[in-house]
Design a protein that fits this description.
Layout lengths: L1 H8 L2 H19 L5 H8 L8 H25 L9 H12 L3 H35 L3 H18 L4 H15 L2 E2 L6 E2 L13 H20 L19 H5 L2 H16 L5 H14 L12 H25 L5 H12 L7 H5 L1 H25 L3 H5 L7 H16 L2 H19 L5 H23 L6 H4 L1 H28 L1
Antiparallel strand pairs: 1-2
Helix pairs in contact: 1-16, 2-4, 2-16, 3-4, 3-9, 3-14, 4-5, 4-6, 4-13, 4-16, 5-6, 5-13, 6-13, 6-16, 7-8, 7-20, 7-22, 8-20, 9-18, 9-19, 11-12, 11-13, 12-13, 18-19
Keywords: Membrane, Transmembrane, Transmembrane helix
Pfam family, one: TctA
InterPro entries: DUF112_TM
């Protein structure tokens, strides 16, 4: 099935579309303020009337291009195009300043390709096994798994744990608007007929991600970037010794990125920092990091791209998004009438293996495009992206209207955008809100099914070993920030 879907991608129209989408993703990833996630959120409403295979091929291509493109501005001007490339700035920019721009770009290109391609191979083989295991679980385990995922994202989000939990509860509240899934009762509709069907997922995504980002960037104003000259370019500018001397860092960073990508809500924004810290602490010359050390680039870019495959595993096998972009992809599956979860592989294998094949093909396209586009990267960074604001807003409003065919949904987009801005003002993370909104319906459904199957016995959630394990992990994530200071104080005493 995998090779069949791989062959299906190699038709002229599909190749052309994926080539264009990967370029768009690179542009969005390279320009500070934009991101691959923003590009995916803009594409999502445009896929309503498209074929399923074409829709997901486009979104995957934009995503892969966006993740990889973030290192371009990090290398050339010291400004990360996305959070996934923050650690890349530490060494790539100093290398660029001392005249090794081509070498730094080449390392970033090869590390991005290796992380994406190899992690997808791992995800292709692991996902069916995890899905088979998940098929043996009941509603008690699924409730605990969803609860654990929401709690994990809330607890490990940036800032105060209370802010993360508040965002999660807010997402659960928004999810409760509309008709209850089992008994059909109306909740929080306030007599509004448009709220009877619940709040639209597309409106939430477009508001919190796309329009919020435009509003925040507009408020900051257009920032001028310095001129950059990459000099003479020959090949990738990377020697074999650059790879062999850093092979340990590459392998360690790959598995760090794969594991962190697997954890719900973590993603590439965390993996690149963790991998960089591990590379520096394990180096014989840690003082060279931050001054143009190639190992720092290998660690950051290999790990953040390895998170792509890691994030796909829980999305495909369990129906739980690994990061913000896979949450968008998960909503895309639901929009196209597909049910995410363990049954997806058996019921719609063509979609699953197309996603894996599209990631691999997109990684190859990005590798080729970045190789030939290295000399054009400085021009890319000078693109006046504030001219795109109008286009982005129009696309968001059209997508919101198309989703439900009501102007009320357009108003919801504006309301969610205002909510996103308020979250930024008060430093409240948006990831727990998005994840709890997506999983809230499943959380309620599995809880009520579990209670019903147990004939009103709530203890089944803690007497079943797997369910208990997930609940204990959730509790540990909440209490660990308070336990660690106490243990440190005790050790000091």
């Amino acid at each position: 099935m995998f090779f069949t879907q791989m062959i299906a991608l190699f038709n002229p129209l599909m190749i052309l579309i994926m080539l264009v989408c990967t370029i768009v993703g690179i542009v969005f990833g390279a320009i500070p303020g934009l991101s691959g996630g923003l590009a995916v959120s803009l594409l999502l409403p445009l896929t309503f009337g498209m074929d399923d295979l074409l829709s997901f091929a486009m979104m995957i291509a934009v995503w892969v291009g966006g993740i990889s493109g973030g290192f371009i501005s990090a290398t050339l001007v010291g400004i990360p195009g996305a959070p996934a490339s923050i650690a890349t700035c530490f060494d790539a920019y100093p290398m660029s300043q001392r005249g090794e721009t081509v070498r730094a770009l080449g390392i970033g290109i090869l590390a991005s390709f290796a992380g994406t391609f190899l992690s997808c191979i791992v995800a292709t083989f692991l996902s069916p096994f995890i899905a088979d295991f998940a098929m043996k679980l009941g509603p008690w385990e699924y409730f605990s798994l969803c609860f654990c995922a929401i709690t994990l994202v809330a607890a490990l989000s940036k800032g105060s744990i209370f802010k993360g939990l508040f965002a999660a509860f807010l997402g659960l509240f928004l999810c409760c608007v509309g008709v209850a899934p089992l008994d059909g009762a109306y909740r929080f509709t306030f007599g509004n007929i448009y709220l009877g069907g619940g709040l639209d997922m597309v409106a939430l995504m477009l508001g919190v991600y796309a329009i919020k980002q435009v509003a925040c960037d507009y408020a900051k104003g257009q920032q001028e970037l310095p001129d950059v000259n990459v000099g003479k370019i020959s090949g990738f500018g990377v020697k074999i010794t650059d790879i062999t001397q850093n092979i340990g860092i590459i392998l360690k960073s790959f598995f760090i990125g794969l594991w962190i990508g697997f954890l719900p809500g973590m993603g590439s924004g965390l993996s690149n920092m963790v991998a960089y810290a591990q590379a520096q602490s394990g180096s014989k010359h840690p003082e060279t990091f931050g001054k143009g050390e190639p190992g720092g680039i290998w660690a950051s870019e290999c790990s953040n791209n390895a998170s792509v495959g890691g994030a796909l595993i829980p999305m495909i096998a369990l129906g739980i998004p690994g990061d913000a972009v896979t949450a968008l992809l998960l909503s895309g599956l639901m929009i196209h009438g597909l049910q995410p979860g363990p049954l997806l592989i058996s019921s719609n294998p063509q979609i699953v293996y197309l996603i894996f094949a599209a990631v691999m093909v997109s990684a190859v396209f990005v590798l080729v495009e970045q190789f030939f586009g290295m000399r054009w990267f400085p021009m890319l960074l000078k693109l006046p992206y504030h001219y795109l604001y109008g286009v982005i807003l129009v696309m968001c409003f059209i997508g919101a209207f198309t989703s439900t065919n009501t102007t009320f949904n357009v108003l919801c987009v504006l309301a969610f955008a205002a909510l996103g801005v308020m979250l930024d003002v008060f430093k409240i993370p948006a990831s727990p809100l998005i994840l709890s909104f997506i999983l809230g319906g499943k959380l309620e459904e599995y809880f009520r099914k579990g209670v019903s199957y147990s004939k009103g016995d709530y203890s089944s959630f803690i007497t079943r070993p797997v369910s208990l394990l997930f609940l204990l992990v959730a509790v540990f994530c909440v209490v660990s920030p308070y336990i660690k200071p106490l243990l440190q104080k005790k050790r000091t005493a």
